[in-house]
Structures are given as C-alpha cells and as structure tokens.
Write a structure and sequence with these properties.
Blueprint lengths: L5 E6 L4 H15 L3 E8 L19 H18 L4 E7 L21 H15 L3 E4 L9 H14 L7 E6 L2 H24 L12 E2 L2 E2 L11 E4 L4 H10 L1 H4 L9 H7 L2 E6 L19
Parallel strand pairs: 1-2, 1-4, 2-3, 4-5
Antiparallel strand pairs: 5-9, 6-7, 8-9
Length: about 290
C-alpha cells in the first residue's frame, strides 16, 4: 500500500456522495487525507429542472446528465475531494424500469468489465480504506447494487486487502427519521387536500427479488460511528449543490442549525477487516494512523 493515507468512496449517482459520505469526505480532507470519489453513472434518470420525472415529455435524459455533472463538481469542491473519477455509465433507472435493459446502462454492464475500470483507479490510488454500499445497495437501487458488486470484485483483485466499509444507519436513528418522513408525507397530503388535490401516499418498494430490505442496521452491529459535526457546513453545501435532485429533500427542509444538530454522525459497517479492528471505531482510517 501507499504511504499516503487515501480514502476511496464508490458511489452510484451524483448526489449519493453527499448524502451518505459527505461528512466523512470533508472531515478526511480537513485532516490531510487524500480523498478519491468514484461516481459510476451520469444520473440521466434523476429529475429534470422543475421536478420533471423520467418518462414525462419534458424530461431530456442527456440534459439532466449535463446538469448533474455540474452539480457534482460543485459538491466535490464543497467537500474538498482530491480526485473525482466519473466512470460515465448511463443511469439504469429504478428496478424494473426499461432503462435497466439499455446496454449502455450500468446495470447491463458486465460486472467484470466495470470492475476492471474501477480496478485501474484502485491500483493508481492504492486506498487503505474503501467505502461503498452493501449487497442490497442500501435500498435496492440497481445502480447501487452494481456499485457494490464492482467494488468487491475490484478489491478481490488487488495485491493487498484494504478495509472496506458499507454505509449504514442504526435502527435507533432510522426509527426517528421514519417518524419525520411520515409526518412530512402526511403534511404534504393535507396541504394538497386543501387545494382540492387528492393524493395517496407515494408507494415505496424496498424489496429485492421479493425479499424486504431493512434500511436500518442493529445498533450493536455498527462498526464505525464518525463525528462529522466539524464539517457539517461542507456537507450541507454539498447536498445543496445537488439542487435539481435534493431541493425538496428532508435535509434541505432543515435550517443549517437543525441540520447541524441532526446530522452530526455518519455510520458504517466493516466488510473486510485486515487490521483486526475490534468494536465500534470513531476514525474511518483506524488501523492506518
């Protein structure tokens, strides 16, 4: 491994880096650690400006990709990312969408092909710590699942073993967040009703191959709990940079003060443990410094 401390995050879409690892990226940068962000897709099938959804007549996937590339640049700057790598695959859309079958999509790309490209970056950077999603892609999105698959395939071909972490949310925190999401959903339905708009709650499918995905992780299975409060402003700025996707998110509905109080910690579970770490660490680079 290199003598330079290097952390690599492998994410599926522009904006994923800010939501699940913005704090750790900014914190490590402030500590002089080299940070490498790999974004696998261009995010073509996110929202277009004005909240226009894929499939609507005014949604232009290529225009969305251009917009999201600019937003990603701004977010990476806010997080002081040392190196941004775009693999440039086409967004696969949500599970079951026809975009899954597009041969240009990330999901349709053979794992060994995409892993080979990621492996080249890993061999150049030789990160001690790599972060991505678990085998369910945290919440089942095909591109997140594929990011997991190619990361683990690339790591397996290295001539050393880095510590690999998956992002996680403790069950206790997830319960609190669910309460907030459900309250916001009720308030939105009530506001629509006052305007004469009748709307059912938005359906959420959190299953893969018929198996329900648990978004939370038992608190006692969390292997790293990182205090990122010192860089909360940078994380907030990175999320705000992705305005086209996150302007209406629960993060952006918070004031900076509320955000600082709620988003003080990022959590991870270890997938590999070459340093024989024990318990829950408070440093993602534990074992290397």
């Amino acid at each position: 491994m290199s003598d330079t401390l290097t952390f690599m995050a492998v994410h599926a879409h522009p904006d994923d880096e800010a939501s699940s690892s913005g704090g750790i990226l900014a914190l490590l940068a402030s500590q002089g650690v080299r940070t490498v962000l790999v974004t696998c897709t261009n995010g073509e099938f996110g929202d277009a400006p004005g909240g226009v959804k894929p499939g609507d007549g005014d949604h232009d996937a290529d225009d969305v990709a251009v917009l999201r590339a600019k937003e990603l640049e701004r977010a990476a700057t806010a997080l002081r990312v040392t190196r941004l790598v775009r693999l440039g695959y086409r967004d696969s859309g949500m599970r079951g969408w026809p975009q899954n079958d597009d041969p240009r999509s990330f999901w349709a790309t053979p794992v060994d092909v995409a892993a080979g490209r990621l492996l080249e970056v890993m061999r150049e950077e030789r990160p001690q710590v790599v972060m991505t999603y678990n085998e369910h892609g945290f919440y089942g999105h095909p591109d997140h699942v594929q990011a997991h698959r190619i990361t683990m395939a690339a790591v397996a071909q290295l001539d050393y073993e880095p510590t690999v972490y998956f992002n996680a949310i403790p069950d206790s925190v997830m319960a609190t967040w669910r309460e907030r999401w459900e309250r916001e959903e009720r308030e939105k339905i009530e506001a629509d009703a006052r305007l004469g708009i009748v709307r059912e709650p938005d359906p959420v499918d959190l299953s893969v191959d018929g198996e329900e995905i648990e978004l939370g992780t038992p608190d006692d299975q969390i292997d790293a709990a990182i205090d990122v409060s010192a860089v909360n402003d940078a994380k907030y700025d990175a999320l705000a940079a992705h305005e086209s996707q996150l302007a209406d998110s629960f993060w952006m509905k918070m004031t900076r003060e509320e955000f600082a109080a709620v988003m003080r910690t990022e959590w991870f579970v270890r997938a590999t443990n070459p340093q024989d770490l024990a318990g829950c660490v408070n440093d993602i680079m534990a074992g290397y410094r």
